[in-house]
Amino acid sequence: MCSLQRANFATIKGATLVLEVADSEQKKTRGLMHRTSLETNRGMFFPYEKEEKRLFWMKNTSLPLDIIFINGENTITNIGEGVPHSLESVSGKGCYVIETNRGWAGKNGIREGDTIAFS
Length: 119
Fold this sequence. Notes:
The chain is mostly beta strands.
């Protein structure tokens, strides 16, 4: 079940991200496209109504990203690497997705199976 539709923060293993919420279809489609930077410990949160396979691509995104897929129990199901301007999809199953600067997950020791607390 995907009940969370808004979150301002995500905390994983003591590391916290400040989240911008993609709370409309237009914002979800645009994501972090056309941006030239993303502040440290910042990310974009994509909430969905049901848990299913999600595909993210980077055609118009110039930032290298960690793309974190999260299920309805707030557990990470996959962490993919978004390659700038790539047409290749990054996929995972989830209710929620977070995009953040590439390397953030590794730097903070975050892996598949870890649980996220949202607030």
